[in-house]
Write a structure and sequence with these properties.
206 residues, alpha/beta, two-stranded antiparallel sheet, 11 strands, 22% strand, globular
């Protein structure tokens, strides 16, 4: 990687227990690859650096399935998403200028979505996030100036409060794909049956 991406980090959050699903969602197979491999491929195809994957409840299973990946085991994952984000930020090199946070179960987010976020960030060098369900959310690119606040997150409070405070409408990218995540076996079946269909820009979901 050259240019702007040298000090740019990408992070996939995959630490949760997926209790509603009952097994590791990130290792579900779709089109010949695990969902985690699909998330990584979307990042790489967007021209961004190989992501750091934050694991937790299913660390051993993910490590066995994908020993070549850059995994960081958050042992206190049970304390919530906020702590996983804080842990991830502490794993980054000191000279990191910005970081993309992507949720491991956002199965529909593709390389074009990520590239749109990155290109906007390159122009503005400000917090840039997806916009769906009427509010900013992940995936989002956070500048270094917000790293201290990300490192202070705790409990199950993710970065939504930061996005609500700091995200400006001009720096949000409409992204219906980001509204789709997988929480239950029924949703997984629905996703596989939907062929990722969209109508008039709205996800055929829920």
């Amino acid at each position: 990687m050259t240019g702007d991406t040298n000090q740019f980090a990408t992070i996939i959050l995959a630490a949760g227990a997926a209790r509603r699903f009952g097994r590791c969602k990130h290792l579900l197979t779709w089109e010949g690859r695990s969902l985690l491999e699909h998330r990584i491929a979307a990042v790489l195809e967007a021209g961004l650096p190989s992501p750091l994957v934050i694991t937790g409840a299913w660390h051993s299973e993910i490590q066995r399935a994908h020993p070549h990946l850059s995994l960081r085991h958050h042992q206190n994952w049970e304390q919530g998403l906020g702590t996983s984000i804080a842990f991830a930020m502490h794993c980054l090199p000191d000279d990191t200028t910005a970081a993309l946070l992507l949720l491991g179960d956002q199965v529909a987010v593709n390389s074009e979505d990520i590239q749109a976020l990155y290109q906007h960030w390159r122009q503005e060098k400000a917090l840039t996030s997806a916009l769906y369900r009427g509010a900013p959310g992940a995936p989002a690119i956070f500048p270094q100036s917000l790293f201290p606040e990300l490192r202070r997150l705790d409990g199950d409070r993710g970065a939504k409060a930061l996005l609500a405070t700091h995200a400006k409408p001009a720096n949000t990218i409409p992204m219906n794909h980001a509204a789709i995540d997988i929480d239950t076996p029924d949703e997984w079946q629905q996703w596989q049956n939907s062929n990722n269909e969209f109508s008039n820009g709205e996800a055929l979901w829920n």
